[in-house]
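Hi W.,

Here's what went into the run:
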Amino acid sequence: MTAGRAPGRPKPARIPSGDRQTYPSGEGQTPLIRISHLSKGYVRGGQAIPVLLDIELDVMQGEFVALMGPSGSGKSTLLNLIAGIDKPSSGSIEIAGVDIARLGEGALADWRAANVGFIFQFYNLLPVLSAFDNVELPLLLTGLSARERHQRVAQVLNLVGLNDRADHYPNELSGGQQQRVAIARALVTDPALIVADEPTGDLDRTTGEEVLGLLDALVQQLGKTIVMVTHDPKAAARAGRIVHLEKGVLVDEARA
Amino acid sequence: MFLLKLLLKNAFRHKLRTGLTVLGLVVAICAFGLLRTIVDAWYAGVEGSSSTRLVVRSNISLTFPLPLNYAQRLRAVEGVRQVSWSNWFGGVYITERNFFPQFAVDPATYLPLYPEYRIPDAERNAFLRDRQGVLVGRKLADKFGWKVGDPIPLRGTIYPGTWTFTLRGIWDGADAKTDESQLLMHWAFINESIRQRFRGRGDQVGVYIVGIDEPNNAAAVGQRIDKQFANSLAETMTETEAAFQLSFVSMSEAILVAVQAVSLIIVVIIMAVMANTMTMTARERLAEYATLKALGFPPGFVVRLLLGESLLIAAIGGVAGLLLTWPLAAAFRSAAGTLFPIFQVSTLTMALQLVAALVVGLVAAAWPAWRMGRIDIVNGLRHVG
Amino acid sequence: MAYIARNLWVRRVTTLLTAGGMALVVYVFATVLMMSEGIRSTLVATGQPDNVMVLRQGAGAEINSAIERGQAAVLSTLPGIATDALGRPLLSAEPVVLINLPKRSNGKPSNVTVRGTSDIGLQLRPGVRIVEGRMFRPGTSEIVVGRSTADGFAGVDVGASLRFAGRDWLIVGRYDSGRSGFDSEIWGDAEQMAQAFRRAVFSIVVFRLADSSLFDSVKDRIDADPRLKLEAKPEIRFYAEQSEALATFINILGLSLAVIFSIGAVVGAMITMFAAVAQRTGEIGTLRALGFRRGAVLAAFLVESLLLSAIGGVLGLAAASAMQAVDVSTTNFQTFAELAFRFVLTPTIAGQALAFALAMGVVGGFIPAWRAARLQIVDCLRAA
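Here's what came out:
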């Protein structure tokens, strides 16, 4: 299982050698994510608007965590901070021992490339690229040869069950299929952490179920750690742990 | 290469917009090339000059004549190899629109000074023998469809009356720079007629053309000539043929400066259009750029994407515009006819056309690319669609 | 209308770039028209309504013409010529030549018109006033220079001396002729000039008619006289013809350029409008669903395009009108001499420039507006 790498050139990630491997998770290990005294606020029109207040949160390797809360609760902001696409006002976010809150923008980009996989509500695929090319995109940031890249892409597409649609363009795929391409893309660099922002928000019930099932498999079989923001309780139920946020403060936790 | 594939696909994502931008580029680059060629054509006379020919004129202005008896004294000046003379005839062929230069020259001494006029011996001799004969350049003959033996009437403005000449020969220029749109007649013929009709006038020369041995001696010989005739009734001013031609160009300098300025303006216009296109493109793809940054691509990658796309479009438009310049220049050349005797698209112009296209591509994308490189990922992702 | 204006404001950068491109085109267009108008008005101002110019038949310009003393004498006896306060015929026989002087701007020599005239010649051109120094005294080597000549050429100030035709000529005054062609000339005593240039003949004869209706009869007499192979023309028409070639050349060159440029600007406008339509597909669908007709959508986008081009047109015109402060001089092909003129903005030119801008707006905006109007409501709403 690859751990997060220190800032620098991202090294090629190791593909897990088999599909079915379980990884130990739980007590006794250091958490993959350790958040301490995390706060985030904006200044708008001269007024300071707090979004997150002094958050403390630990996430273990192999956990499937759902962030829930009403709109304006700060759950998306928390997700963005964990993913390294936003910077906190104060506090620290240690992921695999690295405090990403301290990294500069360039180092943060490199860190993201190696350590995080993204799944967005609206898939965010590049419309001019085929499914295959979209999945290949993150590998361009590694030092792999074209052949190695293509091998990997084929593997993850297989994982999500879209080999036969590899050369289709996003506008030729259904919503569910596009999201699966996005999941494949999130997997292709073999990151330890996967971050999902309302992954089923734009999908119907059945397709949403399929996607959630896939995410579950990633945790159970590949040992990935997933942090997911959702407002759908049924989706949250799939996670092993639900964290509630209200007005920027952690109010509740539930374990499935 | 993946990057190139991405650039191409992005560039033609919006076929109509890209197509229109390329069209604009083609028009601009082509116009730029044509305008530069027009300016070059204006200087063509200078290009066609010989470094062994000097022009001697009255130092009051070109409109004052010099006496015929200067010829002898000029021949005696050290460094002078050959002396001939030429009068601007300024006649009208049918209508003023058919303007072309006409010179009354002394053929026996003039033609040897212009070896770049290639004339078959038979025609040359026919011209030398017939005092009412004229010699014309190939371009001029083609324009009016003249053939050897045709009568050519000219209405005089400086030398009044209607004069009829016979075409005795047509010269071909030795290279592309040689003027082929002139008409040469016998000075003696004109002079005799003037002396008969207007007592006291005659035996006057417009300019002397002086051939020298060594181009390096041009300045020295020129000074010697002017010194000879200083403090006389008709003081002279001698300069190299190139300088003489250049003085004509500089008379229209205001127009030339304007044309050059305009050729730059058109590049600026297309730069604005292209900047517009790239700004719109960038704005539409905000979410994609944010996604790429989220995935870990450095800001420089996004900048390169935008710049690369812009340069690609600019290159396509630039090359197409360049290729279009040639047929258009050819069309212009035949339409302008004798107005611009030499009309060639120079290699420098072509190089500048490509450079202009590239500069447009770079500058147009500069600001959007810089902005896109710096977008906040979170905000960018929010702009879906 | 406010809706349209706000739309343009929201996409400021795009609006500015597109309008800017159009402004440049309108600037070139207007400047060219102003230039040829400037040339025309300069030369027209040179002519007086009752004056008649006489040149040798077939001579297109003053310097090509030659009138012998005998012929000038015959002309002065013609009936119909006005007389001055002292009873002398208002007729001036003038030698006109070109000399070379170095221009102040680049030091390169250009041809300047030198005219030999007299106090009668001055009376024939009432628009000419001495603004510095005094008029030259007859029978001397004194000269006066026109305003533009003094400005445009080096060493041509009152008190300085010019050397040409083997003599030194003292500049004793500077005159202003109200922006006519005479501003680009140098005047001296006719007889002195004739002597210095060893011209036995005059170039032109100019006289004033006692009554403008007499022109035809005077012209007929001149034509009928076999001793006079001369041609008489009203002065105004003569000078108007002098500007024709240059003005026509500038017009053709400039307008072809403006047309080429306009293609570039129209392309820019089209791109902008297509994008505007694409961006607002949702709005279009909503408006149509609410009951607005296709024609209204077409009109709205067309008006937006026109507003864009109107902005560009006004900007370009403003820039062009700033050119009125600039003095230009170049060699007039026909006279072979230096002519100074200005850029003149007339209401007609302003109107033409704006019309041109609006035309660009229509051409650029029409197809996108047409496409917008033809969208199906359902498609619009789905795409939103």
